[in-house]
Every structure is written in C-alpha cells, then in structure tokens.
What we know:
The chain contains 8 helices and 7 strands. The strands form 2 sheets. Strands 2-1-7-6 form a 4-stranded antiparallel sheet. It has a 3-stranded antiparallel sheet with strand order 3-4-5. By secondary structure, the protein is an alpha+beta fold. The chain has 2 domains: 25-217, Arp2/3 complex 21 kDa subunit ARPC3, CATH 1.10.1760.20; 220-299, mini-chromosome maintenance (MCM) complex, domain 2 (Sandwich), CATH 2.60.320. Helix 5 runs antiparallel to helix 6 (156-180) and helix 6 packs antiparallel against helix 7 (193-217). It is 49% helix and 16% strand.
Amino acid sequence: MPLNPPSSSGSKQVSPPLQASSPSITQLALLLSAALVLQLIEGLLPPLGLPGAKLGLANTVVLLSLIMWGWRPALFLAILRQLLGGMLSGKLFSIGFFFGLGGALASIAAMQCLLAVFRPYCSLPGVSVFGALSHNWAQWLVARWLMGHEALIWYLPLLTLAAVPCGLLVAMIALPLQNLFRLPAMQFPRLRKAEIAVMAALVFFSFLFPMGWMEKKRKADTAVVFVNGRAAMELDLKKKEIQDINNGKYHYTVAVEEGGVRVLKANCPDQICVYTGLIKKPSQSIICVPGRMVIRIQAGKVPYDALLP
C-alpha cells in the first residue's frame, strides 16, 4: 500500500515547497560560496560610472536567506561574506570594507523590519529595492562620518537613484532561484503600484534634501564692513544693534535688524548706500564709492569639492 495514495479526484500529489526552520551547515556553506563567487565576478565587471555604486549581485543570496530563514542566517552570511571577500580581494578593514559592512547591516535591518510589518503586502522586488536603498544610504552615512565633508550631501540623490535599478536586478536574479530551489515564495512576485509610488517619493525627496540642507548652511549669519579695502567690523545679524562707522570725512550709521543690515544715514554725496536698503542674503552688498566703504553679507563656509570613494 503506498504511503501517499492519490486522492479520490485523481489529482497528482505535489510536494510542498522547501521551508526549513533553520539552515544546515551545508546550505550555509553553499550560499556563502555562491555569494563569494558573485562578489568576485562583480569585481571583474567595469565600474558603473558612479564612485561607490555597485550592482550588488552577492546580495541575492542574502535576500533569499532572509526570506527563507530570517535575519540571523542572513546576518551570518553577510558578515562572513564581507570578511572572506575582504581577505580574497586584499581589502580587509579598508575604507571600502567598512562601506560594504555598514551597507550590508543596514539593508538586512531595513528588509527585516519591512517584512516583519508589511510582509503580506510586499513584493520581492520591492523588498530588494528597499534593501538597496538602505545599503546605499548607510554607505553615504559612513562616508559622511569618515570624511566629514559637506559636499557629500549632493551624492545622496545619485546613490538613491542608482539603488532602484540595482535592487530590481537583484530581484530578477532571485526570482528564478526562488523557483529553482522551491523556496517559500512571497505573495506578490512583482512590484505593486504602492511600492512604485513609495520609490518615486523617496527618489524625489532625496533630491530635495541636499537643496534644503545647503540652503540652511548658506543662511546669512554675519555682515562684514570693509573700509579702504580692509575688514573694519563684523556684525552679528542675529542681534539688533546700531553702529557708527567713520572714514575720515564720511560718516555712516548702520543698523542690524530683521536678520539683515542697512545704512540708515550717511553724509556721502550720492546716498546710494542709503537707497540700497536692507540686505540679508549671502553675496549681497552695500557699496559707497566715495567713502570706499562696503558692507557684505557672508554665510558659513560651504565647501564644494570632495574626495569621493
């Protein structure tokens, strides 16, 4: 008598998909080997044209292990892959190593949180793209922390934009592997409209964030008074005050108010400095040619060059 007799309807029995509660050492070793091979293959490919941006092919293994067994095996594979990959490439404990490790840890944490809360509504490409976004954002934070350069803020939208196609590519590789090894499939194998809308919003706001950040950094905070080509006085635009400036035969009364500065009175012949009115934006100036007096708004120093990884 067979152990699994056919049903009365005559339908063929289909074995359930593989869904182990915890992976075996052999499975982890195979997945780790696959991740290392993918990482080495990716290292042979030409660069994407964006410093620090990679396809992340090895993240396919981490993504599948996270979906199949949870965050612990995925974290174990990610850390071992970074350590062994660093040894094989000779970049262990280099700046690139810490970039990759920080990105891997952040992506696993983000994908696990997403699956824990929204798993019934998530697709595999959506989880993959969200992991790629978290990976790139974490790398940007590590670079910002190590280099401390303000200009890196403009690199954030580029990394965000690059994460979307890279995450979709990882999902495209993971989908056939998921079917091949009969891994537990997610409910939605394709992107949903809500996920596309969230991705578009994240990319859009990643471009707005640097603009707001730099505008805040460039906010005027001081006004410098130059007399005869030399800085004679510095005015704090956050404090209301009135100062008198003398330059030989010319006399000026300067007022700091409303976050800006103006010349209230002057005995120069053309009175252009008085008619200029209130200035409060960086690069604005009040100029008196006869008295050789200039008041210039200055903001905090904002560097524009950076050494990118």
